[in-house]
Specification:
By secondary structure, the protein is mainly β. Helices cover about 10% and strands about 40% of the residues. A hairpin with a 5-residue loop joins strand 12 and strand 13.
Length: about 375
Amino acid sequence: MTEPTLDDMLESLPATEDVGGCRRNLRSFMTPRRVFVGIAVLLSLILIALIVYLLWFLGRPEVLSNEPSVAGIQPIWEVFGPGEGERPLFSSPSGVAVGPGNRIYVTDSDNSRVCMFDSQGRFIREFGTFGIAKPAAGYAATYVPGSLNYPLGIDTDEAGNVYVASFHNDSIEVFGPDGAPLRRFPDPEVPTGMGSSGYGNAGIAVTDVAVSGDRVYATDAYQVFVFTLEGKLVDQWGKPGISPGDLDHPNGIAVSDDGQVVYVSDSNHNRVTAFTPWGKVLWQVGTISGGIGDQTERLVELPRGLTVLPGGSVLVTDAFAFSLVEISSGGEIVDTYGERGVQPGQINFPNDVEPLRGYVVIADKENGRVQLVRLVGEP
């Protein structure tokens, strides 16, 4: 007995059927052409779904290490630099950011460049050249658009543009997603707002930068500056002192997902402060040090880079405690992770941190590497 063909199956259909009181010819409707078109559309949808799944799956960080967790940190991968070219290794990687497409950006401070990696830690490209915007007396400036001079903090906007705190050039350098220089602000030769810490009281000696919506937040020695994406100054707050809201060399800034809370690592005050977007203090965590010889037990020793986790809590790098400190959105310490060392999962003077799809990227500064880890807490 032979298998029926498509034509045989069509012939077996009733000639007509009633549809809403109307007669419809099924044989003319179910032609081979229409059947094949339907099958092709169905296969196309299945293929598209498969491609979307593969892109999602391949974008997930792959566990490349079977190392056990270390003080609540499970290592996934580590990179020590591009691994190619004239400068294959990092030299003091200080800042990390995750942009669209899960691209990881690292400020390689001593090499005055930004290195880009994919979510697996594979090197993509580097950008930024060394250039001096404000040379010492008797020397010529070497700055050209895209130059960096000891870059520290870094962040991206929704379009994928990259904002870099160029510390010694007293400005923020902005690059396109492909690393092409776009602009810089503020002008390092012009006083900024009501005063700033840039060399010669011009520009800002910017330590970190955070982008939220259409605003760019930046820290200098004693203040927070707020700019538009194009670089227009719209606000500033903070001053030297020890009162709530005063700042002493803040080195980290991040903004809540809804844009309503600005978190600042007040480094030399050994505390983290939550502000409204216009500078009103919401809460503080930490105790100001009494100076050399002070034996006060501090909740955070030297907070530096920080980020907001998907659940809303804040994760802070504590450089002197060689740990990551998680603080709730209400200002309570949730957990601490990490210990000092050079093995995978250990950290040494961590300087910045950023979430990546359930994992965390750490700028492990004194180990000269970037690590992707999972926070698992203590058993």
